[in-house]
Amino acid sequence: MKPIPFPKFKRFDLTEHLDEFPPSGSKILVAPLNWGLGHAARCVPILNQLIQHGYEPIIASDGFALEWLQKQFPQLKSYTLPSYNITYAAQPFWFHWKLMTQLPHIWKTKREEHTFTKEIVENESIKLIISDNRFGVYHSEITSIFVTHQIHIPKGIKGWLASKWHQNSIRKFDICWIPDVADTINLSGTLSHPIPKNIRHTYIGLLSSHAKEDLPIRFDLLILLSGPEPQRTIWERSLIKNFEQSNQKIALVRGTNESIEISHFPESWEVYPFAYGKNLQDLLNASQKVIARTGYSTLMDLAVLEKEALLTPTPNQPEQEYLAHHILHMEGWTISK
User: Where are the domains of the chain?
Assistant: First the structure.
């Protein structure tokens, strides 16, 4: 396997967007969705650059995503937003039905987080909002930015209807930031190319906090687990079974701090509940290859680091399944069904 010629992918640079921002020193609300760690992870470079330019970011999220960001930015004030608590069915047959049954709760949570956002804006004198896939985190009186790589939802008539709802929700925001490039060769494919004419948007480049370093290789494989339950645990058990007799040097980042019972991990493995910041960057740079989901934030990190990878989409998650097919046609990746 040879890595993709990644240098053509531009990275996010806040200085290119400061003309739409309030004066330095202003408070800016940054609110990622708690769905795995992808949304929180790609907010890290945004938070870092806001701090570098003299802004005062305030974090708002829930669950593990909020806890993960609080560990990285203990100096920043944070708020707990209402939780969507979206879960997947363990069996593919029940996948769509389980999501349908959660729609009333999703609508209720969206209304609650919008009300709570108004309170935060008033109490903290927020001057700008950056919402990563939280549809209720916007305010009619201040600039509200929505971050997503997915304008179009794949898969037939259901995808078309979901896309229309998704796009109407995005229009409540002043502008949509798309973490990709506008070029023909891009990472998100038809998920964000082309954009409907009535959505104000800008392609901001890849969002990754990592940098490529020439470190000695310590691991043959780095396994990065992520995503909502129960699929995270199902995949973890499968990978342990597949690699427990392997002679390869393996590091495993479980992507959870919950004490989900596992019978055992191979003694030769290095196992971490989760990793972030410089620790995760070092693990990535010190690994020959990576096993991970086709989550978009993971793809951005791998692209920036030019890492060879074996990628497995989360079963029955249309976005990840589409991304798997999209990057399969790009040089250097192997997709696992």
Answer: 6-203, 219-335
Structure tokens at 136: 């209720």
The C-alpha atoms of residue 102 and residue 99 are separated, in whole angstroms, by 5
With 0.90 as the threshold, say if the pTM is over it.
no
Which amino acid does the sequence have at 315?
A: P
- CA of 233: how far to CAs of 127, 128, 173, 225, in Å? 40, 37, 35, 9
219-335: same fold as 6-203? yes
Determine the topology of domain 6-203 in CATH.
Rossmann fold (3.40.50)
Superfamily, domain 219-335: Glycogen Phosphorylase B; (3.40.50.2000)
pLDDT tens across the length of the chain (337 residues): 444 444 468 899 999 999 999 999 999 999 999 987 889 999 999 999 999 999 999 999 999 899 999 999 999 999 999 998 766 555 554 555 566 666 777 788 889 999 999 999 999 999 999 999 999 999 999 999 999 999 988 766 556 677 787 788 899 999 999 999 998 889 999 999 999 888 999 999 999 999 999 999 999 999 999 877 788 888 999 999 999 899 999 999 998 766 656 657 888 899 998 888 899 999 999 999 999 999 999 999 998 898 888 889 988 788 888 998 888 776 555 555 4
